[in-house]
């Protein structure tokens, strides 16, 4: 019998200089998601990347245990959260961005902005039309994102320099965040070498663009740590634990889709397409997209405050008798 894949204890790498961050990686087993808390060691300013909101599809219940763990960790370290960073609109988990922002606004001098790449607006419009989401629920000031980064835009987390790196392919809006020059938080673009790369079959996805994004990552300094958004160790692989990062060098030497001497661009596009055609849709797809285009906020209640908040779920296989 295959041994279960077990998450390690929360992974922490402490800063080795004033220009490198403290990094806390927290794994969410139900969604196989890595969440990150990144802090400037000098000022204790910090950012949260891709936080998870707990959702039980059986009971349709949303809870905040995972997000509260992030808050507790930040409080224990006396960090002040300056940014909540999303790499893209996720299809496999609900974002806790809006919940965290609301909680932090009560405990900090200022409310941290929810941030993403500027192309996220085209993804929001697409899924808003698909799920009939009113514009005021996914656009500021009531919904959506507070700050949209341009490609290669720099910003600061305390004294740390951070760069918004456009890594399209999985989605057209996808960003990675290069923080402190030595750590790339790659979201769902590259996974670990034994997995390869992310799927490209969502609207706006492109295997050609993902190939180019992969080459951009592999062109970074070899010792750069690439922190993944998820980990799904292959059942036939040798790993028994999920891990949050590997280096660019390890990707160059062993990434099954992108390593040096591996598949050509044309072969990658063919292999990626064949693989994607065999994948099912993510378990939380429809709920996740409707919450995430809103920046983690819920739909307006039906019938006023106190009413039910409803999300749309498509039905397949029926027919009309009209």
Explain the layout of strands and helices.
Blueprint: E1 11-13, E2 22-28, E3 33-39, E4 45-49, E5 52-56, E6 61-63, H1 65-76, E7 80-85, E8 94-95, H2 97-107, E9 114-117, H3 120-131, E10 147-149, E11 154-157, E12 160-166, E13 175-179, E14 183-187, H4 207-218, E15 225-228, E16 245-247, H5 248-254, H6 265-277, H7 285-292
Parallel strand pairs: 4-7, 7-9, 9-10, 14-15
Antiparallel strand pairs: 1-2, 2-3, 3-4, 5-6, 5-8, 11-12, 12-13, 13-14, 15-16
How would you summarize what this structure contains?
It is built from 7 helices and 16 strands. With 322 residues, the protein is of the alpha+beta class. It has one domain (11-292): Metallo-beta-lactamase, Chain A.
Percentage of residues in DSSP E strands: 15-25%
Shape: globular
Structural class: alpha+beta
Cα(first) to Cα(last) distance is 52 Å
Instruction: Provide the CATH architecture.
Output: 4-Layer Sandwich
CATH superfamily caption:
Ribonuclease Z/Hydroxyacylglutathione hydrolase-like
Q: Quick check: average pLDDT?
A: 92
User: Can you summarize the main beta sheet?
Assistant: 7 strands, mixed
- By DSSP (H or I, 4+ residues per run), the number of helices equals 7
Q: Describe the oligomeric state of these chains in a short phrase.
A: single chain
Low-confidence stretches: 1-7
Helix content: 10-25%
How many distinct beta strands? 16
CATH class: Alpha Beta
Order of helices and strands: EEEEEEHEEHEHEEEEEHEEHHH
- Supply the number of structural domains: 1
Side-by-side strand order of the widest sheet: 1-2-3-4-7-9-10
Question: Could you tell me the radius of gyration in angstroms?
Answer: 19 Å
Reported by name, the CATH topology is: Metallo-beta-lactamase, Chain A
Organism: Aspergillus saccharolyticus JOP 1030-1
Domain Metallo-beta-lactamase: 32-230
Keywords: Metal-binding
InterPro entries: Metallo-B-lactamas, Mito_Persulfide_Diox, POD-like_MBL-fold, RibonucZ/Hydroxyglut_hydro
């Amino acid at each position: 019998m295959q041994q279960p894949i077990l998450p390690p204890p929360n992974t922490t790498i402490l800063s080795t200089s004033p220009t490198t961050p403290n990094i806390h990686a927290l794994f969410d087993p139900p969604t196989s998601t890595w969440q990150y808390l990144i802090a400037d060691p000098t000022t204790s300013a910090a950012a949260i990347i891709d936080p998870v909101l707990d959702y039980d599809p059986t009971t349709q219940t949303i809870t905040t245990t995972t997000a509260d763990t992030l808050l507790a960790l930040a409080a224990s370290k006396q960090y002040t959260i300056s940014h909540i960073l999303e790499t893209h609109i996720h299809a496999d988990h609900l974002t806790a961005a809006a919940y965290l922002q609301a909680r932090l606004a009560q405990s900090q001098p200022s409310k941290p902005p929810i941030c993403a790449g500027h192309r996220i607006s085209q993804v929001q419009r697409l899924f808003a039309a698909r799920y009939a989401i009113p514009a005021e629920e996914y656009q500021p000031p009531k919904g959506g994102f507070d700050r949209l980064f341009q490609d290669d835009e720099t910003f600061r987390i305390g004294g740390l320099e951070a760069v918004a790196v456009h890594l399209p392919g999985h989605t057209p809006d996808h960003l990675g965040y290069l923080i402190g020059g030595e750590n790339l938080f790659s979201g769902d673009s590259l996974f670990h070498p034994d997995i390869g790369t992310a799927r490209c079959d969502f609207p706006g996805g492109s295997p050609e663009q993902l190939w180019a994004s992969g080459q951009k990552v592999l062109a970074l300094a070899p010792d750069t740590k690439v922190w993944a958004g998820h980990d799904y160790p292959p059942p036939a692989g040798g790993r028994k634990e999920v891990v949050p990062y590997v280096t660019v060098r390890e990707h160059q030497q062993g990434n099954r889709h992108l390593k040096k001497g591996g598949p050509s661009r044309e072969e990658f596009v063919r292999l990626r397409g064949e693989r994607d055609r065999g994948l099912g849709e993510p378990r939380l797809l429809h709920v996740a997209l409707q919450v995430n285009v809103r920046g983690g906020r819920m739909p307006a209640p039906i019938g006023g405050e106190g009413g039910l908040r409803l999300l749309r779920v498509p039905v397949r296989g029926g027919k009309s008798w009209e």
